[in-house]
Amino acid sequence: MELLELKGLKVTFPTEAGPVRAVDSVDLKLKAKEKLGLIGETGSGKSVLAHAILRLLQSDALSEGEILYRGKNLVGLEKKELRRLRGRELALIPQNPSRSLNPLKKVGKQLSETLRQAGYSRKEAAVRVPELLFAVGASEPVSWAEAYPHECSGGMCERIVIAMALAFSPALLLADEPTKGLDSRNKARILALLKSLTKERALLFITHDLEAAAQICTRLAFMYAGELVELGARTKVLEHPLHPYTQGLLRACPKGGLHPIPGRSPPLFALPKGCRFQARCALAIERCRNEPPPFFDTGAGHFCRCWLCA
Hints:
This protein is 33% helix and 22% strand. It is built from twelve helices and twelve strands. It has an eight-stranded mixed beta sheet, with helices on both faces. Strands 2-1-4-5 form a four-stranded antiparallel beta sheet, with helices on one face. The longest helix is centred in the middle third of the chain and has 14 residues, at 122-135. It is globular, with a radius of gyration of 20 Å. The two termini are 30 Å apart.
């Protein structure tokens, strides 16, 4: 049994322009202790997918399909059961950690409150707080615990929210852009920390940074305009990318020569008739403009949503 399995997941938001589907028919599997990178540009649906898994979307969002965690469908699960799963089984490392922390409370107080929710006594939490901070690389955990979020650097705030996510010892971590906005030194530290802390747990690593995902993940999935467009083992995808979007992202990396993909992704309320990447694709053929391609299985667990793979 897979630890996590998404079957035909769709997420739709109401807007003034009409319903907008931010995640469209996504099928995805994640095994225990596996590290999967979910990569795509801003607005591709990555963060929405993560929040859908934890049922943290706004109340008027419509989720369809199945989100199976250890075989249990989280879609439609009662709030009481969800609260038991969040943190204890599945935990989110949010984007913009400084905004996720309460600016009026010291770091230690916020960690202590998280631990109390996990069932620790006040005394036990006081002992555990510096242990958690030390585990995420705080050389002086007591001084970190006494600091307010505004007194912490971006790298420190990232480590603090990682410590909070680890408070319940979850089986699955969903890390949403954990290296965003960090300099190269802090980025390397956070990647090394995540690699160390997830040896015995699964990781869904959500990022726009392909090179960061390649360092930590064993499989890579690429999202574009709400759809998965390529999925496969890291080595296979990086050495033999099949989708023109994946190829474009590789060329846009420093190692690829920093050649940006021309144009921009289509608005979700005005998607093209055929392939969603067609307007930016130099390889597009007539069929791409008229028929949306399915997600082709090209063998050995490598999937691609492109007519060139038919």
